[in-house]
Structures
1.
Amino acid sequence: MNAIIISRVSTEEQKEAGNSLPAQTARLERYCQNKGFEIIKKFSFDESAYKDNRADFDKILDYVIEQKELVAVCFDKVDRLSRNIFDIRVSTLYEKALNDQIELHFVSDGQVINSKISAVEKFQFGISLGLAKYYSDAISDNVKRVYEQKLRLGQWPHKAPFGYKNITLRDGKKDIVFDEFRSEIAKKIFEWYASGAYSILTISQKLKKDYNISLNKGYVALLLENPFYCGTMVWHGSPYPHKYQCLISQELFDKVREVKLGHNKKHFKYAGKPYIYRGLLRCEHCGRSITPEMHKGHIYYHCTQSNGKHDAKWVREEVITEEIGQFFKNIEVPGKHIEQILSSLKETHEGKMEFHNKQYAVLTSRKKEITTSLDSLYLDKLKGSITDSIYTKFFTHLKEEGAEVDSKLSALQNAQDNYYITANYILELSKRAYKLFLSSEMEERRQLLKLVFQNLTIDGKKVRIQAQKPFDTIFKYANSLSWGG
């Protein structure tokens, strides 16, 4: 009789030498040799026998069905065929065996299925399939319990998200830490999108251009929606606080969400068009957004007058750029005054820096206390000194407080991240703003506009400007040439 031998393992079973593909194949070859079977085909593959989608096994099944003569289909054990008693592949092969179209041989189990088997042997085969399914179900339950325990402890049971990496500590325990390079990239993605100057597509393109990192639009969108970066992991739709260091603040994550909701409200016709002032200009008369349109090779901006007709004008993009460029010229601080201003600011804010340092010390100390408390809580849990419910209650409370402290530290750092350096940056920016505005790429121009201007409106063909702080003050003193104040 001709024979087909089939060896199968799952990924986990590869680690077991006695159950490996070579070991199974060797047993099946010896069996066929002892029986006098001629092996016409050998199949060896890595695939779960529990899932419904079994592409590799379906190809083997097709080959078996194509055989015109009686053939012995040999497995090492029944669970090599399937771990799912409801698998239609099992019933297909079983019926063919009972009709003497094939014979099923399970070498290590000592079972042969053909038309001559007794009721007891049929029952034994059913029991073998049931035990195989029970084994898989038990493993699945154990894995779920392990995952649930990890989640309660604030541990992520899967591959770390972009910007983090999985590591193994010296004691063999697993941990997730920042990836030194990718964590900075992930942070930039959030900051770029929160600025409102970049779409998901332009971020994807910028990553490729500036850092040679290929992340498609869908991946970037999912990254921006993942709260893991600010302290919350989501597993099968349920949120859990995690124990790892936050990459961004909750405020930045919320800002990204606001920007995304705002983008989703834009009409599809204009949402992706590459216009510099798209979404940045409003009509002085009715307050509606100014719409960009291309006509005869030129870009024009105009009010849609959707709230009622008024004397709205169409304004060329070059005209708007020229007027805004003039404003940037007017906020240039003369070089000879910058040092005097910085010196005065440094003296004035020495007291603020002292307060900042004290606040930072208090928050840092509390952060260490929370970390120590979490470690002690975990030890109490391992010793059985506290119940699961008490552990979860205090763990959640400490994690929430820790996230709040992180948020305050982040806000304090952002607000006071060396006031003197920040002031110097603003003054230097004002000095170079005009050149930057004219020479930058479109996304950088939009970001600069959002940084400097609070409101941009069009009154007829005139651009009206309201600057953000502190640029409004610089503009005021630049116009009066009174830098002493």
2.
Amino acid sequence: MSRPTLAALILVVGMLLLADLLVVNSALDALAGIVVNAVILVAAGAALAAVGALGVRRIGDLWRRRGDPVGAVLVLVGMGAVLVAGLRPGSAGTNDPAVQWLVAALLVPIAATLFGLLFVTTLGAARRSLATRSREATVLVSAALVTTILLIPLSGSTGAWLAGAAGWSLAVPIGAVFRGLLIGIALLAAVYATRALLGMGAADE
């Protein structure tokens, strides 16, 4: 698919979904639902293609004896275990007990370990940020420290006050910052998408 055709398709889909959001019409809603389902199918196909490409890449690494052979074997074994558990005859798919066991016994502990490592690296990053003695780093680390203290699980009236303060801070100041970031990112993405669709470059500015 050529770039102008892809850009026109993206523009048509975006305008259709925007019209469905702004206009109450059953036919338009049905058409938008079909488009959304098609996009979901395309995304699912892209995800399957990515998984297949990962498997082929790891097999190629083992065949050519490059990279980390232990990691490649673990990736292939994990992919095979999940595929066998979910696609074997009589399997219930994602609701199958074998699949749920693999997720609960392997994937969740791995994710928890990664988040634990993230906490350690975050502490290191905070220490290095404070070493620069910049105002932004001090504000960032102070806000993170205050939020962490508010989220400490305590009982009694102190715990209730901390929980209320934590809920307020997450809903009002932190929520406002996140909403501002999302709005800014959305505007920036819209500007770049418009530039790409119109074929505008740095020389056109």
3.
Amino acid sequence: MADGVEIERKFLVKQLPDGIDANPFGEIEQGYLAITDDVEVRVRRYGEQSFLTIKSSGSESRVEEEIEIDGRRFGALWPLTEGRRIEKRRYRIPAGDRLTIELDVYHGRLSGLKTAEIEFESLSDASAFVPPGWLGRDVTDDPRYKNKRLATEGVPQPR
């Protein structure tokens, strides 16, 4: 992510790719402290690390600042996220051209949902990306699949 700007596309996952467990993965607990139309503030524990993240609204490109916090701070803030949480296993899959697909397999009330996100250096790189066959529909511009909505509303109903 360059200069605090995230350029990303998000896809549903039709099927898990062959050999998924050969890729590095980690468990994520994520909860939202504040959600508005313009900004979200969340805490996340990813393995042994914890973060406070502030994101602007947007789809393919948006401001994102992530600040590492210690376990004590995470523990103090976590109860404030009650009712606005997600749990998932994240796989990091190399995709060539210095790209990594972050494939999320959700747990708990979001169980069964699988999404994949890819971050890019530029909007032109994002537009040129050709997804592998195991990825499904591009949901980058579908607000129902934003993690903040998943945390508050659950798995979206098909349209």
